Amino acid sequence: MKLQLNDSSLLQTQAFINGEWVNGDAGETFPVSNPATGEVIAEVASVGAEETARTIDLAEAAMSAWKKLAPAERSGILERWYDLIIENTDDLAAIMTLEQGKPLFEAKGEVMYGASYLKWFAEEGKRIYGDVLPSPGDRRSIVIKQPVGVVAAITPWNFPNAMITRKAAPALAAGCSILLKPAAETPLSALALAELSKRAGVPAGLFNVLPTKSSSTVGGEMTSNTKVKKLTFTGSTPIGKLLIKQCADTVKRTSMELGGNAPVIVFDDADLDLAVKGALASKYRNSGQTCICANRLLVQEGIYDQFVEKFAAAVKEFKLGHGFDEEATHGPVVSKKALSDIDAIVQNAVEQGANVVAGGKPSELGNCFYEPTILTDVNDKMSIFGEEIFGPVAPVFKFSTEEEAIAMANDTEFGLASYVFTQNLGRIWRVSEGIEYGMVGVNETAISSEVIPFGGVKESGQGREGSKYGLEDYLETKYICMGGL
């Protein structure tokens, strides 16, 4: 389909380096496709290591003036970028739906969510405080905060707008410059944001977008270049581990938001309708392609059958379709490979004894559509218990006691998001403190916003994004001792 935009200049296909639109040195491109149809949307410029190295030099030079600006001046520019994103929400959402596949209403929600980080950090950047520590009379001990330096960011395809602003906003607010490698599946959203950053007055060299068909080449330069002081990454745990190893040689700061295996724990005393509603929203948002989506539904035995009945009735009301179909509630997964991986997990679970209550197979709509699926008769000995599904598949496990639920929830190397449904106040505290996750939603699954510290523990990563804590990840603490007073 042909994309109709109010502002066609938001659809860019070149790299954005030092405030200019440029091709890669070799003139190479790679295709970006619509997962709903398989149609190639655009050919996008592909850069390599040499362009990345030059961008790092330019980012370092641009930062020298940026970090000296008054925080209020930096704030004003971020505010203008925010305003432009809001003004262009429809176009940004249309671009996202075309390249990523999520329904248009969901894409608009992500654009608004992504913009909120610019608004938040525009204000939070004014509140970078230091300290004067108690000291002997002839000296003063002072602590100041300074920008960490040039930041490299690698962002995923599942949230191609918000995962960029969540990194760029605090970096710029802190006084850093940033270069971004977007996912090859969804570079158009990143390039549209770059166009708006230029209009907002973000000085050249401070925000750069490097699309590439060779992630390892660009990523390798980012991790090895000594001028890059911090790497921030959202993606899979195996790739995150590799990047951490690569950053070790130059002892870079890292922020890692990695894989998840989120449990939704539903106790007998839960508000059942609320639990079903929350689990549905968490599991099937973006067709199950979120790092914090419900990956394991753990339901206490006393309400297990009732929960499954209500849950299945709601899932059967879903409507798969192209993102621009106003009746569609859910779109495609991102690629044929993703669908193949999802189906392999489902079929393996069935072979091990799982029962398909809904879905369970690819849809006839197209190569990237998978039916919203529910599996019962699953247990913690099956491989699906430990797998990050990243698709519209909900395995529903049964447990007996509170202690068993906590043990099941913790039986994973991941520790990003978790959810608990219960009306018992004591249980809320016991379970929230007992499960090993960076984030816990109690009687709520919509837990993410710009004001909270988003991040995980164990192999789900390190660092936090959003909130005042997210700004700290882009600052260094310097101690100054003033003697002879």
From TrEMBL:
It comes from the Bacteria. The active site is at E257. InterPro entries: Ald_DH/histidinol_DH, Ald_DH_C, Ald_DH_CS_CYS, Ald_DH_CS_GLU, Ald_DH_N, Aldehyde_DH_dom, Aldehyde_DH_Superfamily, Succ_semiAld_DH. PROSITE patterns: ALDEHYDE_DEHYDR_CYS, ALDEHYDE_DEHYDR_GLU. One of its GO terms (biological process) is gamma-aminobutyric acid catabolic process. Keywords: Oxidoreductase. One of its GO terms (molecular function) is succinate-semialdehyde dehydrogenase (NAD+) activity. Residues 21-480 form the Aldehyde dehydrogenase domain. It holds the Pfam family Aldedh. Belongs to the aldehyde dehydrogenase family. This is Succinate-semialdehyde dehydrogenase. It comes from Neptuniibacter caesariensis.
